[in-house]
Amino acid sequence: MSNPYEIDHNIKPNETPRRRTRRPSMTSFFSHLAQIESTSPSHNNPHATPTPVDMAAAERILQDQLLHFLSATSSPGQEAFLQSLITSLEQDIAQPPIEVPGVSQSYLDQLERVSRKSLKKGDECKICGEEFLNDEFSLVVQLPCHPLHRFDLECVGPWLRLQGTCPLDRKNLEDDRKKRLQDLVKSCTDEEEDYDDMYA
Predict the structure, then answer these.
(1) Which of 26, 31, 143, 158 is the most exposed place for a label (fewest CB within 10 A)?
(2) CA dist 134 to 18, 137, 184, Å?
(3) What mean pLDDT do residues 60-70 have?
(4) Same domain, 107 and 118
(5) pLDDT at residue 189 greater than cutoff 90
(6) Are 158 and 69 in contact (CB under 8 A)?
(7) In this structure, are 126 and 83 located in the same domain?
């Protein structure tokens, strides 16, 4: 059904209805995380640590997002995967950590982006279950632990910020990044020594 503006300006209504996204808004999660992170610029006391209640609340918000995805899935594989993430969060809610073990926002900003051209039909986010190519504006990231660990940044971002591990293999991404940096520094140092030996 057209509205008067569309009729007056000869605008034909879109034949295909716009598909609604299944991702819930995580603004309350990021707002809460900014309040409890001691590295956040909005934090008043840089030496304060989050209370267990604050950490459990952040874990519950993330758990609610995953429960939303779980209720919408029809894939047994995705259901088992989401259930394992929810169980992990349950354990953290029962025994909250004393600090946020996740990665920083700058780490998320530096994750490798996957271009639409390299995505294949059927590639989907393991968290929300949406095919990457079905979302016109999806921002797909590849985690450094494995070339096939690809997710929508909107889905994996909250998990990484709070947990700091790959949702699939649970490798600690910050430790992995530090190891790769050490290897890079070592290889540069070795090359420099080889260069010095060549012209000594």
Answers:
(1) 31
(2) 11, 9, 37
(3) 90
(4) yes
(5) no
(6) no
(7) no
